Amino acid sequence: MHKETHTAVMLDCWNQKIGEITFENKPSEFSKLTRKVSRFVTEEKVPIYGLENAYGYGHTLAVWLIEKDFTVKDVNMALSYTQRKSVPMYQKSDSYDAEAVTLALINMLDKLPDAIPDDKYWT
Known about the structure:
alpha+beta; two-stranded antiparallel sheet; 4 helices; globular
């Protein structure tokens, strides 16, 4: 999650990368994400979105996804940081950072809280 753009990585349940997208951090662009994800959704699969910083730069996206009835989990930055640093020779990039968030989401899915952004502080 960044102020200007978001990068999302899609992984399957075996942690295999199946897609990636970078889009602007504005509601008019968010449907690009859900359209990309929908390419991989079948009757047997349900998309779950994991956002690092669902209450900061990811707030607007979290609200938008929740309003569209998607499941959104808040991935604590410490979990994705641990995932990033577990890789030897880690090279900082938005792509790998997004993958680390997604890996944390998959590995901790049953323990992560639902993102519940409180709109009363945002205009």
